[in-house]
Design brief:
alpha/beta; five-stranded mixed β-sheet; 13 strands; globular
Length: 263
């Protein structure tokens, strides 16, 4: 089928938490998203690879190669690609300060917008108390998350049969379970404090699979979300404004929803 959508050009593109190696991911949607978006700089904000899963059971379908090639082609064409490893791809932290082809590996960096504002870019696991001090509990949480994804498969099979849209058990839990909301709040506070102490205007991170963009803590906090369920990314437009984009996939004309930067 012929595709007429024009490629959208942005100053910067931020994606995280793709988790290549985890079976229930939305890699196909990410491939489509990248085909319709070009950027001066692409930030891969951690957990692009899921080393935890790949170490236990190798899963590398051809679409992973397609995604990798798209990113490498963009880098070869002049896009600056920066990879900031997270906790699931922490083995790549051994290569910080080096390049793989045209891709640079760093632990953190500062992005400057067209408006001259500065943003700390970091995956965020460094400020997750569970990941830092109780890694075994992080593995338990990872198991629970993957279990919720498997349950989701059954739930959404039934919902499709009833003509209903996709529904996420894990996202519902993050919104409704008091402890989960508290953890998200503490994570946002820790990242906002780090940004303030770093002397920047905001922070862009991933890690918690909860896309958001707000100024509630006196710092412009931006979270990219994930490509396991939510299919979200952050873009900086040519005028320096940020948008949180939720890509709705290849169906229905490849529609997507945007949320512009709060002013």
């Amino acid at each position: 089928m012929a595709e007429t959508r024009e490629v959208r050009r942005v100053r910067a593109l931020f994606i995280s938490d793709v988790h290549l190696g985890m079976r229930p991911t939305r890699v196909g949607q990410l491939i489509e998203f990248l085909r319709f978006h070009d950027a001066d700089t692409i930030y891969l904000v951690g957990d692009i690879l899921d080393g935890w899963r790949l170490a236990k059971s190798w899963h590398w379908p051809n679409e992973y190669n397609v995604l990798t090639q798209i990113l490498l082609d963009k880098a070869a064409a002049g896009t600056k690609v920066i990879y900031l490893p997270g906790n699931h791809d922490e083995f790549l932290r051994e290569y910080l300060g080096t390049y793989f082809g045209e891709v640079e590996f760093v632990d953190r960096t500062v992005h400057t917008t067209a408006q001259g504002k500065t943003y700390l870019v970091i995956h965020g696991d460094q400020f997750d108390v569970v990941v830092r001090h109780a890694k075994w509990l992080a593995y338990v949480g990872d198991w629970a998350y993957r279990f919720a994804l498997r349950v989701n498969i059954v739930i959404n099979w039934v919902r499709r049969r009833l003509g209903l849209t996709y529904w996420s058990l894990s996202a519902w839990a993050k919104h409704k379970v008091k402890n989960a909301v508290s953890v998200i709040g503490r994570f946002e506070e820790a990242l906002s404090l780090e940004a303030r102490q770093s002397g920047v205007d905001g922070v862009i991170c991933g890690h918690i699979h909860y896309a958001d963009m707000h100024d509630r803590l006196g710092i412009h906090y931006i979270n990219t979300g994930d490509w396991v369920e939510s299919c979200t990314a952050i873009v900086e437009n040519p005028d320096g404004a940020f948008e949180l984009i939720k890509w709705t996939g290849v169906q229905e004309g490849r529609r997507f929803r945007r949320r512009k930067e709060a002013t």
